[in-house]
Amino acid sequence: MIEIRDLWKSFGDKEVLRGITLDVEPGTTFVVLGASGSGKTVLLKHVIGLLRPDQGSVVVDGKEISSLRGPDLTDARQVFGMVFQGSALFDSMTVFDNVAFPVRERERRIPHDELLARVIESLRVVDLGEDVLDLWPSQLSGGMRKRVSLARALVANPKIVLYDEPTTGLDPITTNSVDAMIDQAKERRGVTSMVISHDIASAFRVADRLAVLYDGRIAAQGAPEEVRHSDDPYVQRFLSLWFEKQ
Amino acid sequence: MGRIRAGFEDFGEQVLFAGEALAWAFRPPFRFELLLHQAAAIGVGSTFIVAVTGLFAGMVLALQGNYAMRQFGAEGYVGGFVAISLVRELGPVFTALMVTGRSGSAITTELGTMRVTEQVDAMESMAVNPIHYLVVPRVLAATLMMPVLDVVFTATGYLGGYLIGVYVSGIAPGPFLDHTRSMLEVGDLEHGLSKALVFGAVVSLIATYRGFRATGGARGVGEATTRAVVWSSVAILVVDYLLTFISIG
Ligand SMILES: Nc1ncnc2c1ncn2[C@@H]1O[C@H](COP(=O)(O)OP(=O)(O)OP(=O)(O)O)[C@@H](O)[C@H]1O
Ligand SMILES: [Mg+2]
Fold this sequence. Notes:
The structure holds two protein chains of two kinds. Chain A has helices at about 40-45, 70-75, 95-105, 110-125, 140-155, 170-190, 200-205, 225-230, 235-245; strands at about 1-10, 15-25, 30-35, 55-60, 65, 80-85, 160-165, 190-195, 210-215, 215-220. Chain A is an alpha/beta fold. In chain A, the strands form two sheets. Chain A has a six-stranded mixed β-sheet with strand order 6-7-8-3-9-10, with helices on both faces. In chain A, strand 9 (about 210-215) and strand 10 form a beta hairpin. The radius of gyration of chain A is 18 Å and the shape is globular. Chain B is an all-alpha fold. Chain B has one domain. Chain B has eight helices and no strands. The longest helix of chain B has about 40 residues, at about 30-70. The two termini of chain B are about 35 Å apart. The chains are: A alpha/beta, B mainly alpha. The interface of A and B includes residues 49, 71, 88 and 106 of A. Bound molecules: adenosine-5'-triphosphate and magnesium ion. Magnesium ion binds near residues 41 and 85 of chain A. Adenosine-5'-triphosphate binds near residues 11, 39, 42 and 85 of chain A.
C-alpha cells in the first residue's frame, strides 16, 4: 500500500510537484501518465525515498518513507524493485553481476548454481538468452539494457515494483511481453506496481488505476474508463490525440 | 561572503559524510572482497609512481644535504638527514600527493560517473547503501595502503639517497649508514606511518565525497575530480602541519 499525501517538491524556484495525493492499493497496478517534464520521475523517486519532499508525505506499508534516514531507509527499501528511465545498469559489472546484485545482497550465502538459475530465469522473462550473461552494459543495445534492468528489478521478487517507462524504446512484441510480465507479477505474487508510461495503449492495458499529471498536480485519476471520460480539458486533449489515431 | 559561507557548508557536509562512512564501516555485512579489490587497485595503481618519485626525492635530498653539510665538514650525517626527512615528512606527504593524483582522482571519476548516470540511485533502490558498498571499502583500502606505499616511497628514497650520497657525492658508506642508525628512532617511524594512515583516510574521504556530490554530466564529473585533487592536496599539507605541531610543536 502506497499513500502519497499532498506532496510538494521544488528545485530552486521551479515547482515540479504541487500537492500530489494518491493511493496505490496492494496488489494493483497504478499507471502515471503525463507530458515530458511533468514530474513523473520526480514523483516515483519520492516513493522509494531517493528524493525528499518539501512538504507532504509518502507512506509505504505503514512506514513513512519520506522521513526515514540512514539504515532505516535502507531497510525499508527491501520491499522495492525499481526500473530506471535510463536503465542505470552498473557499467563496471557484467550483465550477470548486474542481475545477480540484488539477490546476492539479500541472500549472501546463496550457492552459485542457484543464483545462476535465478538470473537466467529472470532474463528469459524479458526474452534475453544466456549469451548476454558475460556482456558489459556498454555492449548492449538501448532496448537490451532496458530489459536487463527489468530483470534486475524483478529478480529478487520484490513486493512493490516501480517502473519508469519500462517499454520506451522497445519494439511492440517486447512491449507486450513486458506488459504481460507486469500482469503476471500481480496475479502470481500479488505484486503492487507503479508504472510511468508514454505508451497509452500499454498504459490502458495494464492499469487498474491511472493518473494524469499536469502542471504539478493530478488532472484526473481513477479507473482507466473514468480517466478516459474525464472532463478535464487537459486530459481530454492528452488522450484524444491518441484515441483519434486508433 | 556567499562563497565563504558555501565553503563552510561544504566543509560541514564533508565532515558529516565522514561521520556517516565511519558509522557504516562498523555495520555488517563486511564486504572483505570489495576491500581487497580496492586495496589491490590502489596498490597496483600507485606503487610504480610512488617508487619513482621516492627514488628521485631521496636522490635530491642527498645532493642538498651534502651541499649544506659539507660546509661544516659534516657530510657523514647526510644518511641520517635523508632518512629522517623521508620517514617523518617527505614519505607520507609525497605518497599522499601521488595517491591523490593517481587513485583519488580515479575514485572521484568512477563514483561521480556512477552518481550522474543514476547508478548510485539504482544501488539505493536495491536496499544497498552506497556509502556502505562504495565508500567504506575505498576509504578502508586507502587508509591501509597509504602506510604500505609510504614504506615503498621511503625505502626507494633511502636507496636513491645512498646511491647519490656514496657514488656521486663521495661520502663514505660506513658513516652514511652509521649515522642513519644513530639518528633515526622508532618514534620517527611511528610519526611518519601514523601521518600516512591519516592522509589515507583524508584523501579517500575527500575523493569519495566529491564523487558523490558530482552533478551534471561528463563536465560535472571533471569538475568534481579537479576539486577532489585540489582539496586533497591542500588538506594533506594542512593536516601535515597540524600533526607535526601536535607531535613536536
Ligand atoms: N535533480 C533535479 N534538479 C533540478 N531539476 C530537476 C531535477 N530532477 C528533475 N528536475 C526537473 O523537474 C521537472 C520534472 O522532471 P521529471 O524527470 O520528473 O519529468 P518526467 O515527467 O519524468 O519527464 P519525462 O517523461 O521526459 O521523463 C523537469 O522540469 C526537470 O527539469
Ligand atoms: Mg521521466
